[in-house]
Amino acid sequence: MTERTFLVVAHTGRDVVTTTLETIARRCADAGIGLRIVDHDTRRAAEPFIQTHPVDPEMLRRTGADVEVTQAGSASAKGCELVIVLGGDGTFLRAAELAFPASVPLMGINLGHIGFLAEAEAHRIDEVLDLLISGRYRVEDRMVLDVAVTDQGASQPRSRTWALNEVVLQNRSHNGVLELVTEVDGRPVSAFGADGLLIATPTGSTAYAFSAGGPVMWPDLEAILVVPSNAHALFARPMVTSPRSKVAVEVHRDGRAGVVVSDGRRIMDVPAGARIEVSRASRALRWVRIDSEPFADRLVTKFSLPVTGWRGRS
Question: Do the Cβ atoms of 278 and 247 come closer than 8 Å?
Fold first, then answer.
């Protein structure tokens, strides 16, 4: 394997993905950069309605590329310079599961619909590769949440995970409401019944939390966003806390059980009486940037926001 290696995670099975993979392989071969390819789409097997297709490494090797095929796992990105994601936001979050444990930066190329997490669109692939191959990119840190679930009376968590976008606490049975008490920095804030509760990063503020009524936060802001979901209470509005805060949610011991879902990927059971604690993780996710597009422009483009009548300077 060459001194420089890029890992590619792709939403496979579409012609545009195959074409983009061939372009990447050809350019990396010319530059003497090795390619490591995840051998299949890394979506959960619990989603049987999704048809996944393996990558054809021989097709890529015909470009002259040094291609290594790897299984999706915590060691997939080890030793790589960066991770290139071909797909939409879902593929980006799946690739983050490979990049985050190895502290390898990742960059998304949007081949999906909105692609809010992507740095570039597919039609810019040659320009993007010029910048990546020449090393003309920068790496920023994005805040990640640490998530722990602890049973009532226990001293240690029963399970732990992390989240780049958001943590969602929801009713396991989807029947009735969860009885919750929210806490910030060791002090109770509000008790209410609700369908659930979301705790998000600024990166995730434009995703599920936004749909649930939360505010948009600029990604260079460091904060924790708390958004109740369909709460039955007078005071159950979104809250924005310090990035140093510890946000906790307690599920009533005589109420219903729930589940915690991180980034739509990792699921943990939350028995009645359990406690969820969310705080800033000790490590950040490393994020490749090649553009300096203002975040406001991204909002307008991705959400097709009306700006007719603006009289400012362009």
Answer: yes
CA dist 54 and 37 (Å) reads 10
Whole-number pLDDT of residue 40? 62
- Classified by CATH at the fold level, domain 5-142+285-303 comes out as Rossmann fold (3.40.50)
Alpha carbons within 13 angstroms on the beta-carbon side of residue 126 total 1
pLDDT at 18 over 80: yes
Quick one: average pLDDT of 160-170? Answer: 97
Angle at 16 between CA 10 and CA 18, to 5 degrees: 60
Q: Does residue 89 carry a catalytic annotation? A: yes
Task: Give the mean model confidence (pLDDT) for residues 38-56.
Answer: 54
Cβ–Cβ < 8 Å for 274, 179: no
- Grade residue 54 by pLDDT with cuts at 50, 70 and 90: low
Q: Domain-by-domain residue ranges, the chain? A: 5-142+285-303, 145-280
Higher per-residue pLDDT: 209 or 2: 209
Of residues 15, 30, 56, 89, which has the active-site annotation?
89
* pLDDT beyond 80 at 139: yes
- Nearest CA-CA partner of 144 in 196, 202, 98: 202
For residue 47, what pLDDT is reported?
A: 46
Mean pLDDT, the chain, integer: 90
Straight-line distance from the first to the last Cα atom of the chain, in angstroms, rounded to the nearest whole number: 47
Q: Residues 185, 190, 196, 199: is their CA dihedral positive or negative? A: negative
CATH fold group of domain 145-280:
Tumour Suppressor Smad4 (2.60.200)
Q: What are phi and psi of 297, to 5 degrees?
A: -65, -40
